[in-house]
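Need Glutamyl-tRNA amidotransferase's 3D structure for a figure. Predict it.
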Amino acid sequence: MTQAELKEAIKTAMKARETVKLNVLRGISAMVTNDLVAKGRGPEGALTEDEMLALIIRASKQRKDSIQQFEAGGRPELAVAEKEELAIIETLLPAQMSQDEIVAAAKAKAAEMGVVDKTGANKLMGMLMKDLKGKADGTAVKAVVDNLFV
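Structure prediction for Glutamyl-tRNA amidotransferase:
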């Protein structure tokens, strides 16, 4: 998603009176502005596609963490709102890879790199995360890599 697409999505949500979606999109827009200012580009600057993806992933992780904290703290009613927001954020992310696809990618990368035991697992993990950035959750990739050399 680009910044222009984000602005259009905000307009569409306003016109459709989708309050939750509008709040989520405005929150991401604020994150974009804060990130631009932090990087010294000013609020009128632009982020690359990878930087936008990283922001959206960060927003997703924040919601997942909040859901976990609310449920652990016995506040499921607060977790419901976070789950709604997470569902909207996940529509902005690229489709996530299945477990089988991650395993296939890990085996192919291990063969390409010549990794045959746990000693090269960290290098394999690093290279896989570069290749699968935004397409697969890091915890799922780590679990696959750990299971490859058991």
